[in-house]
Design brief:
- The complex is a heterodimer of chains A (111) and B (116).
- Chain A is 0% helix and 56% strand.
- With 111 residues, chain A is mainly β.
- Chain B has 116 residues and is mostly beta strands.
- Chain B has strands at 5-7, 10-13, 19-24, 31-37, 44-50, 53-56, 65-68, 75-79, 88-95, 106-107, 111-115.
- In chain B, a hairpin with a 6-residue loop joins strand 4 and strand 5.
- Classes of the chains: A mainly beta (111), B mainly beta (116).
């Protein structure tokens, strides 16, 4: 069963705009991670936020976490065509070992 | 190695055939995971190893699926008597720290299995 669920399922924006993706999950977590997957390739780790953190930045990425609402968001600022990919949130559950994924948000950044 | 290596990259199997998928994790990574990703879906957890110990196999869909990591490094996922519903990309990931705390999980490029 899928733990994290992303919203929206698909997002199309123009280059230079910001992209925001949301994630909801069901049970308590140790941390929550975001991954990117380009078509036909493996997943790439983007950023990790711990359960006691509320916000984290890495380059053009900003992640927030609200454990009371069991939700997270990923903001990509000043998007580029190369950001076109599927984005997955992955809450870490199962005693701290099991990373579970939702169905992802398909982001398309157009020139 | 520099990354997680999976082989073969593509595998076509006739229904009923047995297959073996290999994963070479990053050297020194004690945690190793297998995931199954169907087309258009997110990866689904299959099983997890800490060194050679298989600590969680709750995601294996049936007893036709078997995974091993006998020496705590290379792992093999074996599927017996393949069925069409087994067609998917099988992803392997490894992690240095528990829960991916230091740098997340590093994924391989996957093996795309097609059962015909």
């Amino acid at each position: 069963s899928q733990q994290g669920e992303e919203d929206p399922q698909a997002l199309s924006i123009q280059e230079g705009e910001n992209a925001t993706m949301n994630c909801s999950y069901k049970t308590s977590i140790n941390n929550l991670q975001w991954y990117r997957q380009n078509s036909g390739r493996g997943l790439v780790h983007l950023i990790l936020i711990r359960s006691n953190e509320r916000e984290k930045h890495s380059g053009r990425l900003r992640v927030t976490l609200d454990t009371s609402k069991k939700s997270s968001s990923l903001l990509i600022t000043a998007s580029r065509a190369a950001d076109t990919a599927s984005y997955f949130c992955a809450p870490l559950t199962g005693g701290g070992n099991k990373l579970t994924f939702g169905t992802g948000t398909q982001l398309k950044v157009e020139l | 190695g520099a990354g997680v290596s999976q082989s073969p990259r593509y595998k076509v199997a006739k229904r009923g055939q047995d297959v073996a998928l290999r994963c070479d994790p990053i050297s020194g990574h004690v945690s190793l995971f297998w995931y199954q990703q169907a087309l258009g879906q997110g990866p689904e957890f299959l099983t997890y190893f800490q060194n050679e110990a298989q600590l969680d196999k709750s995601g294996l869909p049936s007893d036709r699926f078997f995974a091993e990591r006998p020496e705590g490094s290379v792992s093999t996922l074996k599927i017996q008597r393949t069925q069409q519903e087994d067609s998917a990309v099988y992803l392997c990931a490894s992690s240095l720290a528990l829960g991916g705390e230091m740098a997340g999980y590093t994924f391989g490029s996957g093996t795309r299995l097609t059962v015909v």
